[in-house]
Design goal:
mainly alpha, elongated
Length: 253
């Protein structure tokens, strides 16, 4: 699923720089992907211990898997890590720029761990406790939720062709994740993790812990709008004075 982002109101493109947290998440994820690929080629199963297996979390208390599974991707499925890292780059830049690196990482890992907990719970109730989940998709879908809430009117290019508002794009992805999570066949994709990341992200953004950030962002927006309107009024007054002066001079001999 391809898409692009651009704020058409300001002309700002979020491809202009790499903030610190996004940069290191990209480096670590890609680095582990390469090492895992080489390990699998050499016949090693070392990284299997770090994927999310509900039975291991519940029975042997392997809680670290709720964190480490986010950094593993299918070593034979390049599109898996490509989609996740591209989405992290395209949407994470603006979020980190708004929140700062510390808050961004807190949110990212909250969504990832929350998605992992949803996977464990869903498999304990309805699925296979010995299934293995890997990938940063839970955290990535949390970022998509945040982007849709913080920048609802920004235009995304769905498949790089069709413009759509961010808020509607997130609604569509949420609906797909929900319907897929209750489907009998998931084709090896953990849609529960996708949905879980969005759910945890939504409630975190709506909680008191994010209220200061929401208020700050709103205040900045209102201040910018006020400055813009004031500049427009000053310009209109200036142009009116210039027009009046030209009209008076026209009748002077």
């Amino acid at each position: 699923m391809a898409y692009g982002t651009r704020d058409y109101a300001t002309g700002y493109s979020n491809f202009s720089f790499f903030p610190k947290a996004v940069k290191w998440l990209l480096i670590v994820n890609i680095g582990i992907f390469v090492v895992n690929f080489l390990a699998v080629q050499a016949g090693s199963s070392f990284f299997n211990h770090f994927g999310l297996v509900p039975a291991a979390v519940v029975q042997t208390f392997a809680v670290w898997q709720l964190f480490t599974y986010m950094f593993l991707h299918d070593p034979f499925g390049f599109t898996h890590i490509l989609f996740n890292m591209l989405t992290l780059y395209m949407f994470g830049v603006d979020l980190e720029r708004t929140w700062g690196s510390k808050r961004f990482l807190q949110y990212y890992f909250l969504c990832g761990v929350g998605a992992g907990l949803c996977v464990v719970l869903a498999n304990a109730l309805f699925g296979n406790m010995h299934s293995r989940t890997i990938g940063a998709s839970g955290a990535i879908y949390g970022l998509l939720m945040a982007y849709g809430i913080l920048y609802p009117e920004r235009t995304l290019l769905f498949s790089f062709l069709f413009p759509i508002k961010a808020k509607y794009f997130v609604m569509i992805l949420g609906g797909i994740a929900f319907l897929s999570s209750i489907s009998a066949s998931d084709n090896g994709v953990s849609h529960v993790a996708h949905l879980g990341g969005m759910i945890f992200g939504y409630f975190y953004l709506r909680s008191k812990s994010m209220s200061k950030i929401d208020l700050l962002a709103s205040a900045r927006y209102m201040y910018k709008e006020w400055k813009l309107q004031r500049a427009k009024r000053k310009f209109q007054v200036y142009m009116k004075k210039q027009n009046d002066r030209q009209d008076r001079d026209r009748w002077v001999n």
